[in-house]
Specification:
The complex is a heterodimer of chains A (450) and B (189). With 450 residues, chain A is of the alpha/beta class. Chain A has 15 helices and 7 strands. Chain A starts with a helix and ends with a strand. Chain B has 8 helices and no strands. Chain B starts with a helix and ends with a helix. Chain B has 189 residues and is an all-alpha fold. The longest helix of chain B has 25 residues. Chain B has 2 domains: 94 residues, Rna Polymerase Sigma Factor, Chain: A; 90 residues, Orthogonal Bundle (Arc Repressor Mutant, subunit A), CATH 1.10.10. The chains are: A alpha/beta (450), B mainly alpha (189). Chains A and B meet through helix 1, helix 3, helix 4 and helix 5 of A and helix 2, helix 3, helix 4, helix 5 and helix 6 of B.
């Protein structure tokens, strides 16, 4: 077995990066060791094959695309450095919320201390004993204070239970006599028990409602949920997944797949199950056409949890169908459900050019039809489109008419190079938005190829 | 750096995007070849090259000319490609089980004229290519820069922003790892 330092010399020899002295050492080694000769031959052959690997030609001149992107994104030399500087400022700024939270907690603690130190007076020993006796189910006190025990000694043993009753409290020196109740004549007809006895004010203890402000609230459950898409057919899994979806309205679902474009075919086939139309952005269209490895993001809204689960079930069916029974051809396995974070929401806003969750849809109807426009104008326009062959196609004879989509999802390529916001397809999607139904979701679905 | 390149960069900084277009046309092909071997996918390679050029354009005013413009471009593109590969590796991967069962014959220059040699050579290339894809992004990067791009240790250290000693040891480990993968493949046939 060759020593590591000899092997290191041999790899450097292949790289042609040895000094004269090292080269002489390698020559000596090669003369003495057959193993070294063999390893060198193998390493040299590997390097030769690496060098001879074919070099694919660039299919298009990227300069046009790059210059166009520079104009579209309004990039300029130096902008990145400014962005970095602002990021550094943001780093400093990121401590501000923590500092603010710490200050609030400190103030709260200080205020609580001051408040309780003024209002909470430690009860006298006898009162503590009494309050213990007033507890309805309190066991006989065996650990009472000395003064209470002395008092008990004065009473007959058999009367110990009566001593608990409030009427006998008059014997206690610390109890203030209750005021006499004055009855009017008119009130005599009322039953005696309708007169509520005056309830003594609750004593301040360390567990009164004053501490409600410190009662712990439920910590929101924001951990990601991993679910097998095919398992959503099972009633129990479906129900628990639905419960998760009902906990919030904004979700991001990561759907790892083998080939993004193939997985998208499944999505396209599953969409009609919930009358979902797809508006595919131009760059994504090109990639689908070329069947390129691509990640896609689908943004859909106004979909109820039940509808979305139905869509996922259909997606699983389509996956199995298109795979033709071959497990290796199946594209979809598990999904990761997370509630949409602020950062993801910003990411979505940068893709669309607006924040769809804060900006309600315009008053326009689906696909840019404005219901406020006089009917005759719209009818004439639609008639014109129909005559030009661009209207809604008639169903073929013998085939069931396809239901028009009730809502649309926007499909974008989600690669390192993102589409610029404001494309025709994005505008079309924004125009197609409808007012949100109660309990409906905003979902960002990412198809990520491996 | 040539005077022409300096002039083009100065024009870019002044906002002449056409000058940048000239630089892109000059280097896109070379950059694409290198990146393609790192990401092993034409579409991803195009995306990475485009992103690298856009990043370079935005950082042009920070380019001091201490290194060659192309070396500087390489640095941006290789780092973008490595981080893309790291992200991909981090994702749960569903293995396709694409293991070949074809014969492996050691390449021997005396056999160049033997019938079937070209076929076997193609097969060998495929296996080296597969083994290369199984290396870590860092190991793959040094092999691509050294063997495919013919870069010196010094330039590689500049591109990858690590000391020369690191380049030497990474290359050593990468070559031995590649060899081990090929031997494993040979044993499995």
């Amino acid at each position: 077995m060759l020593l590591n330092r000899y092997r290191q010399l041999l790899t450097a020899y292949v790289d042609g990066e040895l000094s004269k002295r090292q080269r002489r050492a390698v020559d000596r080694l090669l003369r003495q060791s057959v193993e070294a000769q063999q390893l060198l031959q193998q390493l040299q052959r590997d390097a030769r094959i690496l060098r001879s690997l074919p070099r694919p030609a660039l299919s298009e001149d990227l300069s046009v695309r790059i210059v166009r992107t520079i104009h579209e994104r309004r990039l300029a030399p130096g902008r990145r450095r400014l962005a970095k500087l602002s990021t550094n400022a943001a780093w400093f700024g990121s401590f501000v919320p923590y500092a603010a939270a710490a200050s609030v907690l400190f103030l709260l603690g200080a205020a609580s201390y001051l408040y309780f130190s003024v209002t909470w007076t430690p009860p006298a020993t006898t009162e503590m004993a009494r309050s213990e006796e007033m507890l309805p189910d309190s066991p006989p006190a065996t650990h009472r204070t000395a003064s209470a025990s002395t008092h008990e000694k004065d009473e007959p043993r058999t009367a110990s239970k009566e001593a608990i009753k409030p009427k006998d409290r008059s014997n206690l020196p610390s109890v203030v006599e209750p005021p006499a109740v004055v009855h009017n004549e008119g009130e005599k007809s009322k039953p005696k028990d309708s007169v509520k006895p005056s309830v003594p004010p609750k004593e301040e203890t360390a567990l009164t409602e004053r501490l409600e402000m410190f009662q712990l609230d439920r910590v929101p459950d924001t951990l990601p949920i991993v679910a097998k898409v095919a398992d959503l057919k099972q009633e129990s899994r479906r129900k628990s997944f639905l419960e998760e979806l009902r906990k919030d309205s904004n979700f991001r679902i990561e759907l790892p797949c083998k080939h993004g474009t193939k997985a998208f075919e499944r999505v396209r086939n599953a969409a009609p199950a919930i009358q979902l139309g797809l508006i595919v952005e131009k760059q994504a269209q090109e990639r689908i056409k070329m069947k390129w490895h691509t990640n896609y993001v689908l943004y859909l809204e106004n979909v109820t949890p039940e509808e979305f689960v139905r869509f996922l079930q259909q997606l699983s069916d389509e996956d199995r169908k298109l795979a033709g029974g071959k497990a290796l051809e199946q594209q979809i396995d598990r999904l990761v459900l997370t509630r949409m974070t602020e950062k993801q929401r910003k990411d979505l806003s940068s893709l669309l050019g607006i924040d769809p969750m804060s900006l309600p849809p315009s008053s326009k109807g689906p696909l840019g039809i404005d219901p406020r426009t006089p009917l005759s104008d719209q009818t004439a326009k639609q008639l014109g489109l129909a005559l030009a062959g661009q209207g809604t196609p008639r169903p073929e004879a013998g085939k069931k008419p396809v239901k028009p989509p009730e809502r649309f999802a926007l499909v974008l390529a989600y690669n390192p190079v993102r589409p610029a916001p404001g494309s025709d397809e994005i505008k079309r999607f924004l125009d197609s938005r409808k007012p949100a139904r109660p309990g409906s979701l905003h979902v960002l679905l990412v198809l990520r190829g491996s | 750096m040539s005077a022409d390149e300096k002039r083009l960069i100065a024009e870019c900084i002044q906002g002449n995007t056409e000058a940048f277009g000239v630089l892109v046309r000059r280097y896109q092909e070379r950059l694409f070849h290198c990146v393609y071997r790192l990401v092993d996918n034409v579409e991803d390679a195009q995306d990475v090259v485009q992103e690298a050029f856009l990043s370079a354009y935005q950082s042009l005013d920070g380019f001091k000319g201490d290194s060659l413009f192309f070396t500087w471009l390489y640095r941006i593109a290789v780092n973008t490609a490595i981080s893309l590969k790291r992200k991909r590796r981090a994702l749960a991967r569903i293995e396709t089980g694409d293991e070949g069962e074809r014969a492996f014959e050691p390449a021997d220059s005396s056999e160049d004229n033997r019938p079937g040699y070209a076929l076997e050579q193609a097969e060998l290339e495929r296996r080296v290519h597969d083994a290369l894809n199984r290396l870590s992004p860092e190991h793959r990067a040094v092999l691509v820069l050294k063997d495919l791009e013919g870069q010196k240790y010094e330039t590689m250290a500049e591109i990858l922003q690590v000391p020369i000693g690191t380049i030497r040891s990474r290359l050593h480990r990468a070559r031995l790892e590649l060899r081990a993968l090929l031997e494993k493949d040979e044993e499995a046939k």
